[in-house]
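Lecture notes, part 5. Sequence design as translation. It can be helpful to think of inverse folding as translation between two languages: the language of shapes and the language of residues. The source text, in structure tokens, appears below.
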């Protein structure tokens, strides 16, 4: 079983063979997704919404993500593990970004880091890559800038497509090995994918990209409230767990659990 490396994403693009990613925040899901052949696992700052109980990703810290990333990296045999750099851990400059990336690499066993921003983050990307750490870039809708962008809005529509292209080229030139395109029109993502040498990874970016990524809790049916339109739910684990909890409670109340077979 060969570990996935950055060159495999590049080769997948060149062969036209799409690759697959999911987020993961713990050892149990990391093991399952790895054994199922998911190519990369992102320990996203979406842990803020899905694990830590925050409304946005903004409060998430490096110290929050280090133990989660260590759990995921320690659980996989094949998948490529990407550590997400949270808000406030790279914006002040390349040196801050490098410090954060080095912490993730030393303390977690992740294989790469991800940070948000195109042209505005190019110097940070370059500095991290120069230190030998692979960087996955992230452009389009960038949740850490939700307030600056005015909400959860599709990016790169109309005239803004040129800005998205400029961001895509900037991260490629800065040395990113791949770039996430979040919530961009399919036609624009197609153009970015055709123009770049490095692979594109879509999250709500349509089918004309080199790889796909979804937040696992959305994908497995845990999301309460509005599920983004680009998510396909592959399971309904929320219902499975809720039914199990109700059945357990009923068994205890009716004294049908535990029985002799569950007792010493
Ligand atoms: O944190 C995250 O899950 C992400 C993906 C949605 C791209 O950054
Ligand atoms: Na993120």
């Amino acid at each position: 079983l060969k570990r996935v490396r950055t060159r495999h994403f590049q080769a997948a693009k060149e062969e036209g063979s799409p690759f697959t990613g999911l987020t993961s925040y713990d050892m149990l899901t990391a093991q399952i997704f790895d054994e199922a052949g998911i190519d990369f696992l992102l320990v996203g700052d979406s842990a803020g919404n899905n694990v830590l109980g925050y409304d946005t990703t903004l409060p998430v810290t490096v110290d929050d993500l280090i133990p989660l990333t260590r759990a995921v990296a320690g659980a996989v045999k094949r998948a490529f593990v990407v550590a997400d750099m949270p808000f406030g851990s790279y914006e002040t400059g390349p040196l801050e970004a490098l410090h954060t990336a080095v912490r993730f690499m030393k303390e977690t066993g992740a294989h790469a880091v991800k940070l948000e921003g195109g042209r505005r983050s190019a110097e940070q990307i370059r500095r991290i890559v120069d230190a030998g750490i692979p960087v996955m870039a992230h452009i389009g809708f960038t949740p850490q800038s939700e307030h600056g962008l005015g909400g959860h809005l599709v990016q790169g529509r109309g005239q803004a497509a040129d800005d998205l292209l400029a961001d895509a080229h900037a991260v490629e030139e800065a040395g990113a090995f791949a770039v996430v395109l979040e919530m961009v029109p399919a036609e624009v993502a197609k153009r970015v994918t055709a123009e770049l040498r490095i692979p594109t990874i879509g999250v709500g970016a349509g089918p004309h990209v080199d790889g796909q990524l979804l937040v696992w809790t959305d994908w497995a049916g845990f999301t309460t409230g509005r599920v983004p339109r680009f998510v396909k739910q592959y399971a309904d684990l929320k219902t499975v767990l809720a039914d199990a909890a109700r059945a357990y409670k009923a068994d205890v109340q009716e004294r049908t659990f535990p029985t002799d077979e569950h007792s010493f």
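The translated text above is only one of many valid answers, since several sequences can fold into similar shapes. Residues 234-264 form one domain.
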